[in-house]
Design a protein that fits this description.
This protein is mainly α and 182 residues long. The chain is built from nine helices and no strands.
Length: 182
């Protein structure tokens, strides 16, 4: 009887943790670039079917993920956090996109990578003012440069793979830096 009571308490505690974390699993408070690389590679492999389930982006003249934003992403942890939050909150959690992301587990995998990346900055990354490049992305996404509704979401989905490669390359770069320190 004691064992079943302890088991039930553990089960209740685990259920509470999952509910409190909004489905996110807790991660250890340390940066593990190897896990980020592995998870990002797996996510990149999953994205083909996900991206193809939406209409192809025909507006090639406007890019949300610019080279300037990529440079900011590499160097500025605040930009990194803001861009990952943008994709998690504004793109992957939107109606039809969320349904497709949940089918393949892309939403969960992306949130896990986002959580892990928060521990990969030296010192604490303070939320600072939105950078110029993030403002430009927001203006394109929210304004008239990218069409309204699903078309703007399709644009962001079509560039999702690029963001995953940025994350992957960032992790490789950080791994090389840590190996150089040893």
């Amino acid at each position: 009887m004691k064992h079943s009571s302890a088991f039930m308490q553990a089960l209740c505690l685990a259920t509470l943790m999952i509910m409190a974390c909004g489905g996110r699993l807790p991660v250890k408070n340390r940066c593990n670039l190897n896990i980020i690389l592995k998870d990002t590679t797996n996510l990149i492999n999953k994205t083909n079917d996900f991206i193809q389930s939406f209409p192809q982006d025909k507006n090639k003249s406007v890019r949300l993920l610019t080279e300037a934003l990529e440079n900011d992403f590499k160097e500025n942890c605040s930009t990194r956090n803001q861009l990952l939050s943008f994709y998690a909150e504004d793109v992957l959690s939107a109606g039809k996109i969320l349904a497709e992301a949940k089918k393949s587990g892309i939403d969960h995998d992306f949130l896990k990578i986002q959580d892990l990346l928060q521990f990969c900055t030296p010192g604490k990354c303070e939320a600072t003012e939105v950078t110029r490049n993030m403002k430009e992305l927001r203006e394109k996404f929210d304004g008239n440069k990218v069409a309204k509704g699903m078309k703007r979401l399709n644009k962001a989905v079509s560039e999702f793979r690029s963001l995953l490669f940025w994350i992957h390359n960032f992790a490789i770069h950080e791994l090389k830096k840590t190996k150089g320190r040893k």
